[in-house]
Automatic annotation (TrEMBL), chain A:
Keyword presence, Cell membrane: yes
Record-annotated ABC transmembrane type-1 domain positions: 72-263
Signal peptide annotation: none
Alphabetical list of CDD domains matching this protein: TM_PBP2 (cd06261)
Keyword terms: Cell membrane, Membrane, Transmembrane, Transmembrane helix, Transport
Keyword Membrane set for record: yes
Organism this protein belongs to: Jonesiaceae bacterium BS-20
Pfam family, one: BPD_transp_1
Protein name (record): Carbohydrate ABC transporter permease
Membrane topology: Multi-pass membrane protein
Location in or out of the cell: Cell membrane
Automatic annotation (TrEMBL), chain B:
Protein name per the record: Extracellular solute-binding protein
Domain of life: Bacteria
UniProt-listed PANTHER family: ARABINOSE-BINDING PROTEIN-RELATED, BLR3389 PROTEIN
Keyword ATP-binding in annotation: no
Keywords on record: Signal
Signal peptide interval: 1-23
Record-linked SUPFAM superfamilies: Periplasmic binding protein-like II
InterPro entries (alphabetical): Bact_solute-bd_prot1 (IPR050490), SBP (IPR006059)
Pfam families in UniProt: SBP_bac_1
Length: 278, 454
């Protein structure tokens, strides 16, 4: 009994810190939901006050004018394209670099590291010119490929560390049993690095879902808008209906929160294993 | 649970989400899509709140499309329209109708051949006869028309009549009267005025333009913008020093300039916390949220020009600005139809219906325009009244120049930094020396847009 009390006392500072951190993390989300139920003047007058009347109409307006139906579909397609392209290309590339299957492995590594440091703004104009010429403006899949390309260096470097962690004997044994390179990769190595694939999938997926600069530049027709772009179309020069804007933000947040709650173990495990390996 | 099954779970959840959202999304597509048989002409526009999006759709898109059997107009709202259009134009892409931020934006793209010369369309539609001369001139490059401004805008004073009554003050008409009311409001524990640049420093350009117009005046500004005077001349030093004095004694934002944005300022004005809000007529577009029939305070809000200060200047001077400009993309396949859309927006009928729904953003700069406020409701009537004061002033040459519309880009940015003087980090003379150096270089490089003579 006494021991348990001592243990509680010992854990108290940590718990207090966690409560404070949880509060600071949840408060902004709470305020978004709170203000999403208020009229614009109410939000401006006091963003911390409770609404006089719950105004659910903001959600209807935000959904309609931000075109979230189309936006979420496009966000999912864009994110899915990005994850798929990254995983399909980064995994073999990481394997080749980890196993030094090519002579230029080191220069390629240096190139990838340099590529990670180059700001995308440098490529924006020429890339736009090429995509415009090819008729790929407002094409969600094409933009998914651009975002995949931006994320590839990090994904390859990350997955390479997972491949390096696999004992050399494993692929060698498979090769001795007659497996070719593709079979070794498909049946032996990829299952072994699946935590890495999850990590990369999560990181790249979140990057793609939250991506703004490329999307806002390349997705120009409203039918190609992602949820983020639809949300931002509600923001005017000076005129902004804060209540509707907050409702839009709440709608934007919701799918991510739900997805996180459903698959939170995978998120945490993936990110933790990524941080250790990386 | 194994990592493989976790992976499968995530994929399954994502796929399910995609399926559900795709189902939800089908409705949105049908709403935004164009007519499959007609070709689409595009116009990119700033992001806008739902009521304004609806207004533009009903009054422009639907009406224009109803008159067409070959093309469908599609307006896209995007908060990064300025930079997107620049990227797209540079790459020979972009919308048919080019939404720009004014003469400084138009000039380089016109010179680069990215915009259509509108002289022929101007003749066809008679724009030169309809549009206010200074505004028309501001859209020209080397004597040819490349852009038409959608709306006239000016910086002045929104006042709350109820607060003035409470303070026992009249609507000020001179700078002395204005300072008396500002002092009285401060003494009564109110904000002398409400305004601020919280979140967006370029708001400063409203006040640099307002003080330059009121203190230095139109002729001095015209001379300096044409290289016939120096920015370090006394009228400009006086203007900057007066703005700094007003900032420091609380007349400009009541000591809260850095903590207020336009929405909050208008809210405070509606809550009778101040007699004045200094700002652009653009602010009418969100003032309707705070001054309306529901709150019973529509009649409390009024708009007056900032009083003149400089010796020998005429009264009722206005800072001339435009909200945006429309041009035609040289790469457009539908240039005639794009001109038709622009012409549609440059009419009194369009101005009236837009002003009723969206006051503050559609003061189409038409010659001899006189609106009957009785034909409008709510703040649209107050805005119509303001327009009735501004248009004759522009026709009479009683206008100064808004930095964001008429100044070359780097000089404009220099003047946004006027808060360095307000905050005591620089004195007015050294600030203007820096402006002079920047402006001289831009004048030499031909970056100064055409300056209409007052």
């Amino acid at each position: 009994m006494r021991k348990s009390r001592e243990q509680s006392l010992r854990m108290m500072p940590g718990n207090v810190v966690l409560v404070v951190l949880a509060f600071t993390a949840l408060l902004p989300i709470f305020l978004v939901f709170l203000n999403s139920l208020k009229t614009a003047p109410e939000v401006v007058r006091n963003p911390l006050a409770f609404p006089a009347v719950l105004d659910w109409g903001n959600y209807v307006e935000a959904w309609k004018y931000a075109k979230f139906g189309t936006g979420f579909k496009n966000s999912v397609l864009l994110t899915g394209t990005t994850i798929l392209v990254v995983l399909l290309t980064a995994a073999p590339a990481a394997y080749v670099l980890a196993e030094r299957k090519i002579k230029a492995a080191r220069p390629v590594m240096v190139y990838l590291m340099v590529a990670m440091t180059v700001p995308i703004q440098l490529f924006l104009f020429p890339l736009y010119a090429v995509f415009a010429k090819a008729g790929l403006i407002s094409n969600v899949f094409a933009v998914g490929i651009i975002i995949a390309a931006i994320n590839l260096p990090l994904a390859i470097m990350l997955l390479r560390t997972f491949f390096l962690g696999i004992p050399k004997e494993l692929p060698e044994a498979a090769t001795m049993d007659g497996a070719n390179t593709f079979q070794v990769l498909r049946h032996i190595l990829l299952p072994a690095v699946s935590p890495g694939l999850i990590t990369v999938g999560i990181i790249v997926g979140l990057n793609a879902w939250n991506e703004y600069l490329i999307s806002v530049t390349f997705l120009q027709s409203e039918s190609s808008y992602t949820a983020t772009l639809g949300f931002l179309s509600l923001t005017g020069t000076f005129a902004v209906d804060q209540g509707v804007l907050m409702a839009g933000a709440a709608i934007l947040i919701l799918p991510i929160v739900v997805l996180f709650l459903i698959a939170q173990r995978s998120f945490v495990d993936g990110l933790v294993s990524g941080s250790v390996k990386g | 649970m194994t990592t493989r099954s976790r992976l499968a779970k995530i994929v399954a959840v994502t796929a399910l989400g995609a399926l559900l959202l795709s189902a939800c999304g089908s409705g949105g597509d049908s709403e935004s899509g164009g007519d499959g048989k007609k070709e689409t002409i595009e116009m990119w526009f700033w992001g806008a709140p739902p009521a304004h999006q609806e207004s533009l759709k009903t009054n422009l898109v639907d009406k224009f499309n109803a008159s067409q059997d070959k093309v469908t107009l599609e307006v896209t709202f995007n908060e990064r329209v300025d930079s997107n259009i620049q990227t797209a134009l540079s790459a020979n892409g972009g919308p048919d109708i080019v939404y720009g931020s004014g003469p400084s934006f138009v000039s380089p793209f016109a010179k680069a051949g990215k915009l259509v010369n509108l002289d022929e369309y101007s003749k066809k539609y008679g724009w030169g006869d309809r549009i206010l001369e200074p505004i028309y001139q501001s859209g020209t490059v080397d004597g040819s028309l490349y852009a038409l401004a959608n709306s006239i805008n000016t910086v002045g004073i929104f006042y709350n009549k109820a607060v003035l009554d409470e303070l026992g003050q009249e609507i000020p008409t001179t700078i002395e009267e204005l300072e008396t009311v500002l002092t009285a409001a401060g003494d009564a524990g109110l904000y002398p005025s409400v305004t601020g640049n919280k979140g967006w420093q370029p708001v400063n350009e409203n006040y640099s333009s307002m003080f330059l117009t009121a203190v230095a005046g139109p002729d001095a500004m015209y001379d300096v913008l044409n290289g016939d005077a120096q920015w370090t001349d006394q009228p400009f030093v006086d203007a900057v020093e007066m703005s700094a004095k007003w900032y420091q004694n609380g007349f400009l934002g009541g000591g809260q300039y850095l903590n207020l944005n336009f929405n909050e300022s208008m809210q405070l004005l509606a809550d009778n916390q101040s007699p004045f809000f200094f700002g652009p007529t653009l602010a009418f577009q969100f003032a309707t949220e705070f001054f309306n029939d529901e709150n019973g305070n529509v009649d409390d809000l009024g708009f007056i020009p900032f009083p003149t200060v400089g010796a020998g200047l005429e009264d009722d001077l206005f800072t001339l600005a435009t909200t945006a400009s429309f041009s035609i993309n040289a790469a457009s396949k539908h240039q005639d139809e794009a001109a038709e859309v622009i012409d549609f927006m440059m009419t009194e009928d369009f101005m009236k219906i837009m002003t009723e729904d969206w006051p503050g953003y559609w003061g189409v700069p038409l010659k001899g325009l006189e609106l009957d406020p009785a034909n409008f409701t709510g703040l649209s009537a107050t805005y119509a009244d303001a327009i009735n004061k501004i248009i004759p002033a522009v026709e009479d040459g009683r206008f100064g120049y808004f930095t964001g519309t008429f100044f070359p880009p780097q000089t404009q940015q220099e003047l946004v930094n006027i808060d360095m003087v307000w905050l005591g980090q620089q004195d007015a003379t050294s600030f203007l020396e820096s402006v002079e150096a920047t402006f001289a270089s831009e004048l030499e490089s031909g970056a100064v847009p055409p300056i209409p003579k007052p």
